[in-house]
Specification:
280 residues; alpha+beta; Ribosomal Protein S5, domain 2; Alpha-Beta Plaits; four-stranded antiparallel sheet; 12 strands
Length: 280
């Protein structure tokens, strides 16, 4: 009898987005563009009498995840869950969505729920919208690539392309997503700044994202200093959405970003959330 299931979901760096308000969580979300990254969340799920969540990130251990607890409750299962990630939480790497997708993918197989990949993504997206932890990361991380989402929710048209060059990122600390997503003033600025087209390549993605970041009013002073250094070196760069950090591409990006903190070299993911193993 299988006792444990392990799954992985890639993270997602959003470059620009615009909220779309629907009649419910399934039709609420965002349009926009981002990069699905090969780093994300690994989730180990074991049946238990009551649900408990342990989060291991950057060598630290924390407990609890209301979105994951909510999603498991909606599935009607209880489990002991351990999520693990190597990127900072709350820094714009889409780890909330990745934790949900990885956990629900594992739970689906462990409890033999018979859900399709779309069903799993729908449950994860609902939890994100309800808890205001994201709007489009789940839709993006269903697959890999540089993505452009042309409608809200998980069933909208999404284009994907797969460049070989990496994206580099540095985190300057967390930015509470819920505080931005619940602010009508912030949402109005974001909607006005939205560039209404898809990126042609990774450099174009960085440039479109930068114009959006400038217009959104979300750039903090410390982020502005990093972006100024990138500008001086001719490096395409922008702010992680929503996170207090910077992503950039190009040969000198890693060198310039290293002056502001630990640099994460992130390749474009080739696939979305998936089961890793079932352990008896």
């Amino acid at each position: 009898m299988v006792q444990t299931a392990v799954a992985f979901s890639p993270g997602h760096i959003s470059g620009y987005f615009k909220r779309v308000e629907g009649s419910g969580p399934e039709s609420t979300g965002s349009v926009g563009a981002g990069v699905v990254i090969d780093e994300g969340v690994r989730s180990t799920v074991t049946p238990a009498a009551a649900t408990s969540i342990r989060v291991i990130w950057l060598g630290r251990v924390a407990g609890g995840s209301p979105p994951v607890e909510y999603a498991l409750d909606r599935l009607g299962v209880t489990a002991r869950v351990t999520t693990e990630c190597q990127l900072p939480i709350g820094a714009g790497f889409g780890l909330s969505a990745a934790a949900l997708l990885a956990t629900l993918t594992a739970a689906n197989h462990l409890f033999d729920l018979g859900l399709s990949a779309d069903d799993v993504a729908a449950k994860a997206h609902e939890a994100e919208v309800v808890h205001r932890t994201g709007l489009g990361d789940v839709a993006a991380s269903q697959g890999g690539g540089v993505v452009c989402r042309m409608g809200p929710g998980i069933h909208a048209d999404i284009t994907r392309f797969y460049p070989d060059e990496p994206l580099y990122a540095v985190s300057l600390g967390p930015l509470p997503t819920a505080s931005v997503l619940s602010s009508p003033r912030a949402m109005a600025r974001i909607a006005a700044a939205y560039p209404d087209r898809c990126p042609r390549d990774l450099v174009d993605f960085c440039l479109l994202s930068r114009e959006f970041a400038k217009g959104s009013g979300l750039i903090a002073p410390e982020v502005r200093r990093v972006l100024a250094a990138c500008d001086a070196a001719g490096i395409p760069a922008s702010m992680t959405m929503l996170g207090n950090g910077v992503f950039a591409c190009g040969g000198d990006a890693e060198r310039v970003l290293s002056g502001f903190g630990e640099v994460y070299c992130l390749n474009v993911a080739r696939r979305g959330a998936h089961l890793i193993e079932m352990i008896p």
